[in-house]
Amino acid sequence: MAEHLSFLEEELVGLPDTPAAFKPSQSQQVSALTRLSWISAAMGPVDTRVLLLPFLQSYQLSRRESDEILCVLAAQWRAVARGVVGVLKADEEERERRLSLLGSADASARRDESAAVTRALGEIAGALEPLAAKEEKCIRDEAVTSLLYLLRFFPDFRSQQAFAQRFLLPIASRLLHSDSGLFFSKCSAAKLVPALYAYAAPAAGQVDDGVEKEKTEQEEGRDQRPAASREASAPEEKRVESEDSDLRRPELNLDRSELRSLFEKLLTHEALLVRRDAAVEVPAFVRHWRRIRDQTRQSACSEDAAQTLEEDPQGLGDFFLPTLKKMIADTIDFLRAAAVGSLLQLALLFPSASSQTFSASAVFPLLSAAVSDPSWRVRAVVARGLAALTAAFPSQFASQFYPCLQPLLRDSALRDVRQAAIRAVGEIAEVLPADEVSEYLVPLVPQLLQENAMSPAAAAAGVLPVVAPPTLSSPLLCNSPLLAPVLEVALPVARAAGAASAQTVLASLALLLNSREESHVRMTYATRDSERQRPMGRRRDPERIARRKRARIRKKRS
């Protein structure tokens, strides 16, 4: 299969005697990298591990200054990983066999092949580590995605945990402790740590029973092999033992408590981007934990592996809650926005229950302060999250969310805050009962229509220059861009309310239709005519529709 590698080398670096002016351009190299899956499938898993991996590693080192190539290569390492495992051209039965290869193997031949594939995936992880520390954000994101993608090739939790503790957790530790003077590696570590948290050791000094059992089986398998086979694999075994000794270094072998402590340091790091990325990723601890726990319970894994994840991850919300509350009082607005967004996500992940240590009631008092925040970024986060909060906690709408919704509907940031709040009204109407919609949301619709619909005289005043930014008491701009969102929200609110309340909304719409001359108002109103009829009780009769269809069919036949 060397001809396939020669073809790829010619596309990426050119022939040795090719003049510099005729070397492959950057766009040609990017196009060639997108075909790595074809090359890996044609070469097969063995040649991909032996020939293609070293070539791509050296090629990556030679293109350290080309961000576009590195970004594509960081994503294409996933295709190379599929080629290493051998699932690109395999049928369904062969694909299942290849994927189960990385699980607990009994036969010595399968164990040797599984070890070779695992080492190759570890080499791919090592090639992705410097990409995760690059300055360009797209390269870092693709590298982190590819690093976590490697766990998909392992069929059970034990094999995933062994690979994560051997390769991925040390990479995350090195990114956390990087002393290069730049903070970009810590941004990638902030995304890796929550995803790998469930695979770390539960406590310091506690050795995982599954890993010890796997090591015992490997030692027994090595003793049962022939002498020639043991001598041939002796150098490789020494290299694996040296890697295991490196993992026993305290700065690399991290448990869950140490990961939480290191992540909390990221939340208070001097670099603002590190603090923001860490704050955004706080809910990912719970999401990844629950995803891995559900996968472990659904798969036919051992009971001890399932018990490892039985601990309730709700302590994660309590652990970072004080730091997030401090970040809300920060002077940087995008840090406050990230903290508020994480708190809202935590509230959605932990619905209120008496048995839970973390309750959403700890987040609700912070909403009023976020609504009155001087930065529109923070207020926009609350406006975008009100609908989801109401869907999760409908009983708290009247006491907690409705007081926050009212000032957001009059916010001075038209497109970023007020438009999100207006659209939230329509989404909230779908989850609230009809009586609450009639009491709280229906009175808002005529006010919104009146505030965002200006007369022609007021529209003529819009040509005057703006000498000061708008405030809460400032008049709305003429020809408001929010009129269309209000029209889109009015009809869903009327449909969710009762018949009497729907008449109020429809009367306001009819008044607006008669007083405005703009075509887009009439068009918006006309396109939703069918929805407008539903709250009035004049729903379409299925039998009448069927009779009309039969009449049309008879007319065509005649």
From TrEMBL:
Residue ranges with Basic and acidic residues bias = 210-225, 233-249, 528-545
Q: Where is the composition biased (Basic residues)?
A: 546-558
One family name in Pfam for this protein: HEAT_2
Q: Which Gene3D superfamilies match?
A: Leucine-rich Repeat Variant
GO MF terms here are:
protein phosphatase regulator activity
UniProt keywords, alphabetically: Repeat
Protein name per Swiss-Prot or TrEMBL: HEAT repeat-containing protein
Organism field: Toxoplasma gondii FOU
